[in-house]
């Protein structure tokens, strides 16, 4: 009787939720974002709000390439060390105030300011004295960013950067209003009245928690507003895949990627769902600063005990591929005929290497798992992550004879837990910010803001530094292949699978652009109703 009552209650909740209004698109964001501050966000949920609310000097086009946005053109010095950007006429913020080059300068400086705590500050280290300022060895006035007038922004560089235009379309290079931040402090990005933006949409409301939503409305002060056809976006927070699926089937959601794994093969075969490529890797993070995972033999044993192809083919069933390295397929290699992963080959087997895993664990002093200390695997709460955790737990028990406790945490808490290195093994994944191998390899630079594993190898750091400075494409890719080899030898992480996103989209909605990097862009979307 209780089961029937709960089922009826679930149906009632779905049935009583509102349909999309005319001119409105409803997207299941999944989780309530920890932040939508362009300088502080480090999660895809927050990024999908920011990319629709803010424009940089450049923006991402419908081919996933950088294109002119607030800057309509730019000039480059012969040595590539000075870039002059020319802003469009009559740029405005969502509250009608004029947007000037100084606002971009303020945004760049804020991202580099160590007091801000920007997790992506290193992306701006190509700017002259940017890294020195971030490390407290220079002043803000020393940074090579100048706004000689309202329509001109000049960047002086430490070194020529092969990814500069891609970087400038990224969230941390958005302009900011210092007057707003001064008035509201860190809360400025949490309230509609203070979340003043300059992109295609502006924030209208934010209801927090499970079942909540973020509502964005068209920004009529946007420089390209004439080409924005959607009046309203509702980003709902439905973490449970079954609930999200029911809401989509009932017509309450227009775009949904939270699809139960058991349903994916049938929906993909029928064409109701579509499998889209993703530049992402799911992996386990090992805390290299804590025993027993300070021992590379233990880390390798745990990695080799994973049946990756079983996970992709029997658990996920959405087109994912076993991760035999860190960098996924589709990322450019040194030549056009091979991508980075194909070119670099496999470092890991698609299925477990049981004999080698057991040998390594025994060599580390734990034969058959004997005397292995208590360890736990932490993950953020949702049914898919729970199923993955239980699968890994069973594999480690079967192959290594090790008991691993499973601990789940709410998303925002989990992010902080992982960042504090309060874990033994943790669920991790990364959707690349750029279609470039550095977009994931850079996570593991010593003391990097995303380096939750506490990993450090000077040779790896040096190779990544060389790749950042190298303008010759083939040599640059070579440096990153060598860096990945070192990373896979040290194994601070255990790659599991490469992402493929299964999505369902309402027939009433057209022209939503989904980047392989996971971003959804709605400024070109329209409805047929």
CATH topology of the largest domain, anyone?
Dipeptide-binding Protein, domain 3
Low-confidence stretches: 1-17
CATH class of the largest domain: Alpha Beta
Structural class: alpha+beta
Major beta-sheet overview: 7 strands, mixed
User: What is the alpha-carbon Rg in Å?
Assistant: 24 Å
Percent range for helical residues? 25-40%
Q: In total, how many domains does the architecture comprise?
A: 3
Q: Compute the number of strand runs.
A: 21
Number of helices: 17
CATH architecture of the largest domain: Roll
- CATH H-level homologous superfamily name of the largest domain: Dipeptide-binding Protein, Domain 3
Give the overall form. globular
> Roughly what is the average pLDDT, rounded to an integer?
93
Note the gap between the termini. 41 Å
Strand content: 15-25%
Please give a structural write-up.
The protein is α+β, with helices and mostly antiparallel strands. It folds into 3 domains: 17-52 and 183-275, Periplasmic binding protein-like II (D-Maltodextrin-Binding Protein, domain 2, 3-Layer(aba) Sandwich); 58-181, Dipeptide-binding Protein, Domain 1 (Dipeptide-binding Protein, domain 1, Alpha-Beta Complex); 276-501, Roll (Dipeptide-binding Protein, domain 3). It has helices at 2-16, 44-53, 101-112, 130-134, 164-168, 178-184, 241-249, 264-270, 296-304, 308-316, 340-344, 354-363, 383-400, 411-419, 438-441, 458-469, 473-490, and strands spanning 24-28, 58-60, 66-68, 71-76, 82-87, 145-149, 152-156, 201-207, 213-218, 232-236, 255-256, 274-286, 321-322, 375-380, 404-409, 425-431, 493-505, 509-510, 513-514, 520-521, 526-527. Strands 11, 12, 13, 14, 15, 16 and 17 form a 7-stranded mixed sheet that branches. A 4-stranded mixed sheet has the order 1-10-9-8, with helices on one face. The protein has a 4-stranded antiparallel sheet with strand order 4-5-7-6, with helices on one face. A hairpin with a 5-residue loop joins strand 4 (71-76) and strand 5 (82-87). The two termini are 41 Å apart. The relative contact order is 0.14. Residues 1-17 have low confidence and may be disordered.
């Amino acid at each position: 009787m209780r089961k029937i009552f709960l089922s009826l209650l679930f149906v009632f909740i779905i049935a009583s939720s509102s349909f999309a209004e005319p001119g409105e698109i409803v997207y299941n964001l999944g989780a309530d974002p920890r932040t939508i501050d362009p300088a502080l966000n480090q999660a895809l949920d927050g990024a999908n709000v920011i990319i629709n609310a803010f424009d940089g000097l450049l923006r991402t086009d419908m081919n996933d390439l950088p294109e002119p946005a607030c800057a309509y053109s730019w000039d480059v010095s012969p040595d590539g060390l000075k870039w002059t950007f020319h802003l469009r006429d009559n740029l405005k913020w969502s509250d009608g105030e004029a947007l000037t080059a100084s606002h971009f300068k303020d945004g760049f400086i804020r991202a580099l300011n160590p007091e801000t705590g920007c997790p992506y500050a290193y992306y701006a280290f190509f700017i002259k004295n940017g890294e020195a300022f971030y490390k407290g060895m220079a002043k803000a006035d020393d940074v090579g960013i100048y706004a000689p007038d309202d329509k001109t922004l000049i960047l002086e560089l430490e070194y020529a950067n092969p990814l500069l235009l891609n970087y400038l379309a990224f969230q941390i290079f958005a302009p900011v209003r210092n007057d707003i931040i001064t008035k509201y402090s860190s809360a400025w990005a949490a309230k509609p009245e203070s979340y003043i933006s300059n992109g295609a949409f502006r924030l209208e409301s934010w209801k927090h928690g499970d079942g909540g939503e973020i509502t964005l409305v068209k920004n009529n002060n946007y420089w390209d507003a004439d080409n924005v056809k959607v009046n309203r976006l509702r980003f709902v927070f439905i973490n449970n895949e079954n609930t999200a699926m029911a809401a989509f089937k009932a017509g309450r959601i227009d775009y949904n990627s939270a699809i139960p794994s058991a349903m994916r093969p049938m929906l993909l075969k029928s064409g109701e769902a579509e499998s889209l490529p993703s530049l992402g890797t799911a992996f386990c993070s090992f805390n290299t600063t804590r025993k027993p995972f300070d021992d590379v033999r233990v880390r390798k044993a745990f990695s080799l005990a994973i049946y990756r192809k079983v996970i992709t083919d029997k658990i996920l069933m959405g087109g994912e591929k076993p991760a035999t390295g860190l960098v996924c397929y589709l990322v450019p290699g040194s030549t056009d005929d091979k991508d980075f992963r194909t070119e670099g080959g496999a470092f890991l087997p698609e299925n477990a290497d049981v004999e080698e895993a057991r040998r390594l664990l025994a060599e580390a002093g734990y034969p058959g798992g004997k005397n292995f200390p208590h360890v736990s695997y932490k993950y953020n709460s949702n049914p898919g992550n729970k199923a993955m955790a239980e699968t890994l737990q069973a594999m480690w028990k079967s192959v290594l004879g090790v008991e691993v406790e499973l601990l789940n945490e709410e998303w925002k808490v989990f992010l902080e837990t992982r960042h504090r290195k309060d874990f033994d093994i943790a669920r991790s994944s990364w959707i690349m910010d750029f279609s470039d191998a550095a977009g994931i390899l850079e996570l593991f630079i010593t003391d990097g803001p995303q380096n939750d594993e506490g990993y450090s190898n000077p040779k790896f750091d040096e190779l990544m530094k060389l790749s950042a400075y190298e303008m010759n494409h083939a040599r640059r890719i070579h440096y990153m292949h060598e860096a990945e080899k070192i990373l896979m030898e040290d194994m601070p992480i255990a790659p599991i699978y490469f992402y493929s996103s299964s999505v369902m989209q309402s027939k009433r909605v057209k022209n939503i652009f989904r980047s392989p990097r996971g971003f959804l862009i709605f400024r070109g979307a329209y409805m047929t109703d």
